[in-house]
Write a structure and sequence with these properties.
The chain has about 550 residues and is of the alpha/beta class. The chain has 18 helices and 20 strands. It has three domains: about 10-250 and about 450-510, Alkaline Phosphatase, subunit A (3-Layer(aba) Sandwich), CATH 3.40.720; about 255-280 and about 345-445, no CATH class; about 280-345, no CATH class. Helix 7 (about 165-190) packs parallel to helix 9 (about 215-235). The chain is globular, with a radius of gyration of 23 Å. This is Phosphodiesterase.
């Protein structure tokens, strides 16, 4: 193993890592490298933001700012009632490697979510989650070099969304992808000799979505991560190591709450059957599933599916099971445009509703305001009163067992503020103990949640030269990671950051930075990314 010149700070991102997941693996001796690092580190829970979901939380971690200051609130970006998958051009704030670059320090960044297309810095950037499978990388041509050096590097497993591939084959690709993250990072670290390194492992999250309850598979993923971490530490010999996650992970024992159905019952929301409305996996499946134009038995099929969809809350993951149960999966796969099924069932009518849930992982209700939204129905003068009315309805909502559905129902400014906050939801709904999930569907008000999903507490560990391993990190927050990393270089955090340097290292007094230059938004327009979101249940 070639040892590169000592890296000053290494950030290891473990998506969805948390004490309930890691502690049993530490106790079993399954993760010797992580366990050794944690033994020598200051550690603690890392409180995530609201909403604690990957696409928004990682930009918050690496900018040190809440979503209202960086502009990414969800997996989807909305322009009026139209939507697109978010990408790096939606991140309207400096990343930690941007700050370092402005201070003449180099970085290697591998697999960080929402970084495509990458910005030009001194070093290398290989985008991660939500990038296309053939991502633009920096510098130009580096992806070809990576593939020649370490193998067929990909953002997603080659057959990850192919329903014809068995789970064991998909999982083997999971493990190989995890290896490739570490191998690619070491190759680039050796080549660029960076001051700062950031490698992110995504499958520590996805394994719980794709294989819920199969803890043996989660263990295997973490074992590969641990092996790669050991080799990275040996090769790069960083002065300081920070391990951080964007949120936690755990079982959901409550309900899927169909907020739009509640709003409809209370008179705030209208529905339509025009095939439009909230984003759905139905809208992106046609080309891959339809194989012919035989419409035999079509109307009967659509009627049956529409009823099931409306009452069952037909997500991508549940859809296959429901179709199988009805004996219709093969027929739909070959003959029926799946969006026709969506069109045959009710969905939210944006234009005629006062408020709606447009994405479950936004954890909130968007109001339809005159002068702000394309067909706004709420006069600006009535904004606060309508918002208060909806907050009152949702705050009082109880589940079938009589328990409160939400811990909090609050105006968005409780958690989200900044120049881009007006693009967010207007009301945030924090599920009770994160045992309930939110769904965009109408039909019955409650259903069964996905069995494993995000929890608000992740984890952080900081070890190395000059680190106070006895520091109290009980109040550590996601926003604190970026200022802490900058302080390890003696660089002043931005006064606009919402986090502060953790007490593990000597903090640097924050300073004001010039206004960040925002570039024009780039369309994502990549079906494979949408398929992946649907497969994980983020796009219903």
């Amino acid at each position: 193993m070639v040892v590169v010149a000592s890296m000053r700070t290494l950030l290891v991102g473990l998506d969805a890592a948390c004490a309930p997941v890691l502690d049993p693996l530490f106790e079993d001796g399954a993760l010797p490298n992580l366990a050794s690092l944690f033994e020598d580190a200051a550690t603690g829970p890392l409180r995530s933001q609201i909403p604690p979901w990957t696409a928004s939380a990682w930009p918050s971690l690496y900018t040190g700012k809440n979503p209202g200051k960086h502009g990414v609130f969800d997996f989807l970006a909305f322009d009026g009632y139209d939507w697109d998958v978010v990408n790096g051009s939606d991140v309207k704030a400096r990343t930690m490697w941007d700050y370092l670059d402005e201070n003449d320090l180099s970085s290697v960044v591998v697999n960080a979510p929402v970084t495509h297309p990458p910005r030009h810095i001194d070093g290398a950037v290989v985008p991660g989650y939500l990038a296309p499978d053939e991502p633009d990388c920096h510098p130009e041509g580096i992806l070809d070099d990576i593939r020649e050096a370490v193998g067929e590097y990909r953002v997603y497993a080659e057959r990850e969304t192919d329903e014809r591939v068995d789970d064991d084959a998909k999982f083997r690709e999971y493990l190989r992808l995890t290896e490739l993250r570490g191998e690619t990072f070491r190759y680039l670290a050796d080549r660029f000799d960076p001051d700062f390194g950031f490698v992110q492992f995504q499958k520590t999250d996805a394994v719980f979505h794709d294989f819920p309850g199969e803890l043996d598979k989660a263990r295997e993923v973490y074992e590969i991560v641990d092996e790669q971490l050991g080799e990275i530490l040996s090769a790069c010999d960083p002065d300081v190591v920070v391990v951080a996650s964007d949120h936690g992970m755990g079982e959901y024992d409550g309900h899927e709450v169909r907020v739009n159905e509640v709003l409809r019952q209370e008179g705030f929301l209208d529905t339509a059957t025009d095939g439009r409305g909230v984003p759905s996996w139905f809208q992106i499946k046609d080309e891959r599933l339809v194989d012919g134009d035989d419409e035999a038995d079509g109307p009967t099929l659509l009627e049956r599916l529409a009823v099931v969809a409306a009452k069952g809350g037909l997500t991508y993951q549940r859809g296959k099971a429901i179709l199988d149960r009805l004996g219709l999966a093969e027929f739909v796969g070959k003959h029926v445009p799946v969006s026709a099924v969506f069109a045959a069932s009710e969905s939210v009518s944006f234009e005629s509703s006062s408020g709606y849930l447009r994405s479950g992982s936004e954890l909130g209700v968007r109001l339809n305001v005159d002068g702000r939204d394309p067909a706004g129905v709420i006069p600006e003068s009535e904004y606060e009163s309508v918002r208060d009315d909806i907050i009152s309805v949702l705050d009082a909502l109880t589940d079938p067992e009589g328990r409160p559905v939400f811990d909090e129902v609050v105006p968005r400014e409780t958690y989200i503020h900044g120049p881009y906050a007006d693009d967010a939801v207007d009301i945030l709904c924090v599920p009770r103990d994160f045992e309930n999930s939110l769904s965009v569907h109408v039909g019955d008000a409650f259903g069964a949640p996905e069995p494993w999903n995000h929890k608000p507490d992740g984890i952080v560990a900081v070890a190395g030269d000059g680190v106070d391993a006895d520091a109290d990190l009980s109040d550590a927050h996601l926003f604190d990671v970026a200022p802490t990393v900058l302080s390890t270089f003696g660089i002043a955090p931005d006064k606009e950051m919402d986090g502060t340097t953790l007490p593990v290292v000597e903090g640097v007094t924050p300073e004001s930075y010039p206004e960040f230059e925002v570039e024009a938004r780039m369309q994502t327009d990549d079906e494979s990314v949408e398929e992946r979101l649907a497969d994980l249940g983020y796009l219903e």
